[in-house]
Amino acid sequence: MNLSVAHNVDNNTLQDLGSPLTTVVLPVIYLLVILVSTPCNLVCFILLCFYTKRKTSTIIFAINLSMADLLYSISLPLQVFYHFSGNDWNFGAEACGFTTVAFHCSMQCSVLITCAIAVERYLGVVHPIKSKHWCTPLRAGLVCLLIWGLVLVVQTPMMRHDLTLRVEQLNLTTCFDVIPRGTFGTKPLTYTYFGTVFLLFYALPLVILVACYVAVTRGLHNSPQTDVEDYSRRYAWVMCSIAAVSFVLFYLPNILLQILHLLFRSQEHSLYPYYKLTHGINSLNCCVDPFVYYLASREFRNTFRKALRPCQCCGQCDSDELSTPSDVFSYAKASLYNSNKQ
């Protein structure tokens, strides 16, 4: 495959490629994510797959989320070398294609799976009776397969083209920082592609996630409170807060900078280094996800505690009941329904 060469790259792009934000700050963030996220998500993946006995829908989503986070971490080491080298790619077109596809695929899967967990929490809290029929492990697995399939289809243009580009003015080779002509077809098709990606994997999931967690929070506030539920409600409140706040903190900057960058480019200006920096901020979400697993699933908490304290009595581990929002409100509403029926 012949390497594409760009002889007349505009000055804004040349300045962007030499920005300290992309050559120093961004790889430092990626390096931090590799050191923290990889061992945490690897441990979570092993515990979820091999040591969690009851595979609930929440566990199925958590397994796929940890897979996406691990795939993301795998794609980062070459990115770190690339950015520390002054945005000069020296690993070949195939490696560039793999890391780029893995990077975007894992990030988009993480967004959609987080959104699916939000919908599951919404059903468990607001419609607990229906959630017993809808939120099954089989259906959760099918949802995850659809998510992975959709993301792979969206990544098809990146799989079919060489994403490296030689910039003669700087004597370096970029990897998807300067998109080779024809990768996404004509210019209108390119804007259509990125607009579709923006709507599918950022704007729409953000709306769904915020709406679900607002409904969950209202359900938590309006539900009948008993002494049995107090301990479990703390888990529910913290889990909802972490999931919603982390999504807003780590993904919203990327969403806003995508829009602003396109607007600035139309005026022959650029915010690309800041947009790239939001990818680093985005990657920090991988470090938070293991805490979401812990708060979202009673089964995972019990497994994690047994792994830390193998000598502890299993009965004590299993005493953590009604810890997820769906468990709490399925119990509360069922009890209220039974008392009214009597």
Automatic annotation (TrEMBL):
It is a multi-pass membrane protein. The lineage of its organism: Eukaryota, Metazoa, Chordata, Craniata, Vertebrata. It is found in: Cell membrane. One of its GO terms (biological process) is positive regulation of Rho protein signal transduction. InterPro entries: GPCR_Rhodpsn, GPCR_Rhodpsn_7TM. This is G-protein coupled receptors family 1 profile domain-containing protein. One of its GO terms (cellular component) is plasma membrane. The chain crosses the membrane at residues 28-51, 58-81, 101-119, 140-158, 191-216, 236-257. Residues 40-293 form the G-protein coupled receptors family 1 profile domain. One of its GO terms (molecular function) is G protein-coupled receptor activity. Its main location: membrane. Keywords: Cell membrane, G-protein coupled receptor, Glycoprotein, Membrane, Receptor, Transducer, Transmembrane, Transmembrane helix. It holds the Pfam family 7tm_1.
